[in-house]
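User: If only I could read backbone structure tokens as easily as an amino acid sequence. Those tokens are not coordinates but codes from a learned vocabulary of shapes. Could you go through the record with me and say what the backbone is doing? Here is the record:
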Amino acid sequence: MYKKEQYYQKVITSLLNGMNFLEADYYRPQWHVSAPIGLLNDPNGLVHHKGNYHLFYQWNPFSCEHGIKAWGHMISKDLVSWKHLFPALIPEEEYESHGCYSGSAIVVNDQIKLFYTGNVKFKKGRTAYQCLALLNSDGSVQKLGPVISLPKGYTGHVRDPKVWRYGENYYVVLGAQDIHKQGKVIWYRSSDLENWIFLGELAGSRLNGFGDFGYMWECPDLFHLKGKDVLLFCPQGLTKQYECFANLFQAGYVIGKLNYQTNSYQHGAFQELDLGFDFYAPQTMEDEQGRRILIGWMGLPDENEAYHPTIKSGWIHQMTCPRVLTLNNGKLCQQPVDELKNLRSDKIESSSIANDIPSFPMISSEMIVKGEANYQIKLSDVILIEVNNIGLILKRKNWRTHSWESRTWQGTLDELHVLIDRSSIELFINNGDAVLSSRFFSNKESTNISFNGEAMIHLIYWKLSK
């Protein structure tokens, strides 16, 4: 816990001392969101209001480790160019002494209200408070304090409130762990955002057809899309099953129907949102055009973080690109927002055998590839994409072990859409039917994209720049 003046002085000092390192870092993204310094993780409080997209995020400005978190704050008119604002929430009160953890935002009477978890740790455990704050038009925040305390039957791991309105009432879902160490999503109802009624468990391990399905569920998000109610969440503690659940922790969703009269939610099977190496804690918003837009953290907690080469420059992690969600044949599809097309320049188009396609600069670029199976795309010496008759394999050289590792998608590939930004790659398969997101750290002397194979392919390539 900090005094406000002390905290801001420390942030300014950290920023001033890190400026030279940040500007010189080859791996820093050109157009993806990253923190000005320190550690960034979960996106928070996504909301579109009066023409501005607001993106808050979990931020430790003092270290590249997961310490006491604040809420960083950025705004954008177009989801491409982002402007940093003053930190929105800092841990200055007893009920948030060990961090202002993740949460969400909602517009009420033309004002943005923030919901977040106040994290408190003590010698024999921890507790959590769900807190309310008001974002003023000048960017300052007025904290109203806790509105939900820790419910009975759960450990101190209750967090990440996502709030929405339905009819005359407000609802909020929370990620939770019960006293039997089972992951759950619990929910509440309120008429005024301050007084909340506990409605029970909406979904979870050992509920609604799930067997044992993780010891903790984090970062829930519930929204209505094309007549269905979609619940996103991040279960921890799943065992790898063939090519499924390959990462340390997962991020995925179920699709169903929420009954507000009976306080029940019937849903289908769990599906992973992203099959790549680095994707977690996604959050969505509906913008003023009616689009459901998702942004995720392109990272994972506790997995190879200490070995990121960017730590030497004083920063770690970035967000995914903003993605539009649609529902198609019982599956969420993700596509980059159209605004990213404004980054394109120097278009090159080629139809040829893969072996005959020349190499292209990799640093910040976009490709759309169509054609026969059995070709490879290589990025520097650290990423290899193999397209075959079974599907696609994404191979990456692990920056800790320097060994090759892989993630797989199975199916018939008709179109591959690739976004690259210095040290990240996002693969969108068949108009977003599947996505693979990953970080990588290439040899700075080898920065080309090359093609191999006898397949005939059609390629469109652009450089990307603001």
Observations:
- Helices lie at 4-24.
